[in-house]
Amino acid sequence: MRTLHFSLRKILFLLFIILRFSAFAQSYSGLGGAIPDHSTARSYPMLVSSLDSNILDFDFGVERVWLKIHHSAVRDLAIYLMSPDGTTVELCSGNGGLGDDFDSTVFDGVSTRLITMGIAPFRDAYLPEHSLGLFNNGQLGNGVWRLLVADYVAGDTGSVLEWGIVFSDNPVAPLSFSSGPCQDYDGRSCMCPDSGIAPCSLLPDMIISETMLKDTFWRRETTGLLRVTNSCANIGYGPMELEGTGRWKCGDSLVSGPILCPDGNWSKQELKQRIWKKTSGPLFDFEDTLVGAMQFHADLGHRHLHIDDWAQNTIRIKGPETDPSQWPVIASGKKVSFCVYDHLQCGDAFYNCVYEDSLYYYSRLSNRGLGTGYDACGALIQGISVGYSDVYDWTLEGQEIPLDSLCNGKYYLVAELDPKHLFRDLNRNNNVSVVEIELRNQIAGCCKSSFRIDTIDKAENIYQFVSLAIPAPDSVLWEIGDLIRRDMFPVFDFEPDSQESFTIRLHVFSDGCRDSISRQVHLFPDACVPEWIGSLYDFKYECYLTDSLRFMRVNTSDVSPNANYLKISPFHHLFTSKTPAEISVKMLYETEDSNGCIYGDTLVYYADFSKVEVPDKKSVLLVYPNPVYGNEFIIDFSIWEELPPLTIRIFDLQGREVSSYNHINGKIIEKKVVVPIKDEMRGLYLLQVETEKSIHVGKISKI
Question: Which pLDDT score is estimated for 583?
Answer without folding.
Answer: 43
